[in-house]
Design goal:
The protein is an alpha/beta fold. It contains four helices and five strands, in the order E-H-E-H-H-E-H-E-E. 43% of the residues lie in helices and 21% in strands. It is globular.
Length: 128
């Protein structure tokens, strides 16, 4: 097989995750993953979906991923990205994690683009 390597730009995807209701928390993660797939398909970019990464790693780690762990490691995940896409789900404005990710992205000089869900499987830029 002769595959041509294509280096797609990396996008960091920020979205609210935490919520006391487990069902809401998991639905937020699922929506972030769907958005990540949409970005990959529609923009041909590589994605880092922060919410999915944390949930999946927590399944196997001996210690759960705490906010403090995420905070001190966030810059490592954001640094290689060309931009930060914020998925504006319910609760994004109140999310401490989203606010910190935006702040770090700004500090690193990353372009920040906001998106909202238009309908199932479709997203549109949000004017924020």
């Amino acid at each position: 097989m002769n595959l041509k390597i294509h280096k797609a730009p990396l996008v960091f995807i920020s979205s609210p995750m935490s919520h006391p209701d487990e069902e809401i928390r998991l639905s937020r993660v699922e929506e972030a993953v769907k958005f990540g797939a949409w970005v990959m398909d529609s923009e041909q970019k590589s994605v880092y979906v922060a919410a999915f990464n944390n949930v999946e790693l927590d399944r196997y780690r001996k210690q759960p991923t705490t906010y403090e762990w995420w905070y001190v490691n966030m810059e490592s995940f954001l640094s290689p990205a060309e931009s930060c896409y914020v998925l504006c789900l319910d609760g994004w404005k109140e999310s401490k994690g989203v606010a910190e990710e935006i702040a770090v992205a700004k500090k690193l000089g990353k372009e920040i683009i906001y998106y909202k869900k238009l309908k199932e499987g479709e997203y549109i830029r949000a004017d924020i």
